[in-house]
Design a protein that fits this description.
Blueprint: E1 4-9, H1 25-40, E2 45-48, H2 59-68, E3 72-75, H3 83-93, E4 97-98, H4 103-109, H5 112-121, E5 142-146, E6 156-158, H6 161-171, E7 176-180, E8 185-194, E9 197-211, E10 214-222, H7 229-242, E11 248-257, E12 260-267, H8 277-281, H9 285-291, E13 308-311
């Protein structure tokens, strides 16, 4: 059996010769370790990782060396600053298999404004996203968050537009956007996507708390959501059709509101929910992603649905 060499890498030292990661250290270590363990359990797969060198070599140089040594590349990079999109383009330029979404899809999902615009234009239920100077109904609660998809702790709730804009005037970094607050239950969907089609791996209940008007995602119950399957299945299918460049593992953040589920974020990369998938499904999620490389569908007709708790604190998030 031929060996498939897969490079899995994160953002350690990204953008500099020193370690200035954009993800918390636990996030990187835990997710990369989980993915590598899953990949190593797939027959015929050899995991390649960039050799640590104490920060002596530029991140881009180490990444390029890893790509040269691999047949396929699975990046675990944040979207901020176009880092994930740029890495995907580099992989394709080097004629390696990209185990992730297309650069065009990554360009859209790296921005909450672009994501919302693409979904709403396609008729997908999604929360609109506005620039701070857009005309808005200022008497409604608003959420201020970065446009580049940082963690939930960077999202703040304000009782009205005046309060939100006042905070932005004093503390804004020029990269924030506004989103209407939607009451409801927070949830996420772990998906397998390919060419506009989708398979739902898990429907997850999120545990979200608020302190000092900031949201904190404490964790999730993978496959802990029941009773919403038909609506969530239709929503996932609509997202995949609207963004056919989504490929492999994708996670949707949704609100289960009074009018049905609406999308408020798309992550075209691994998130902490992934860590609970193998125990929940009873099979290897990395093997399912690699199976998308084949022309023949290799996903089992029935997957496990065991509820598994994942603590985001183990990933330095919250």
């Amino acid at each position: 059996m031929p060996v498939l060499k897969v490079l899995a890498f994160d953002d350690s030292g990204a953008g500099t010769s020193r370690a200035t990661p954009l993800h918390p250290p636990l996030f990187r270590t835990s997710l990369l370790s989980t993915l590598c363990a899953d990949l190593q359990a797939v027959p015929g797969v050899q995991v390649v990782t960039p050799a640590p060198d104490g920060g002596r070599t530029l991140f881009a140089q180490r990444l390029l060396a890893g790509i040269r040594a691999a047949d396929a590349v699975w990046p675990l990079l944040p979207p901020a600053g176009g880092l994930l999109e740029s890495a995907a383009r580099l992989v394709l330029r080097r004629r390696r298999m990209l185990l992730g979404s297309s650069p065009a899809a990554l360009h859209i999902t790296a921005s909450r404004r672009r994501t919302a615009a693409a979904l709403l234009q396609a008729g997908v239920p999604a929360l609109p996203v506005h620039a701070p100077d857009d005309p808005l109904a200022l008497d409604l609660p608003l959420v201020v968050k970065p446009d580049d998809g940082a963690g939930s702790a960077a999202a703040r709730l304000f009782r009205d537009g005046a309060s939100a804009r006042g905070w932005l005037a004093a503390h804004g970094q020029g990269k924030e956007v506004l989103q209407p607050f939607c009451p409801g239950r927070a949830a996420s969907l772990c998906l397998l996507c390919r060419a506009g089609t989708v398979r739902i791996l898990s429907r997850n209940a999120l545990r979200v708390a608020m302190h000092d008007n900031q949201f904190h995602c404490l964790g999730c119950m993978v496959n802990g959501l029941a009773g919403e399957e038909p609506e969530l299945d239709r929503l996932a299918a609509a997202v995949a059709a609207a963004l056919p460049g989504l490929w492999g593992y994708v996670e949707l953040d949704v609100i289960l509101g009074a009018q049905g589920p609406v999308v408020f974020d798309i992550h075209a990369r691994l998130m902490p929910s992934y860590a609970g998938l193998r125990a929940s499904l009873g099979c290897n999620p990395a093997a399912l992603v690699l199976g998308l490389l084949d022309d023949v569908e290799r996903i089992p007709a029935e997957l496990g649905r065991r509820a598994v708790s994942v603590d985001h604190g183990a990933f330095g998030m919250g």
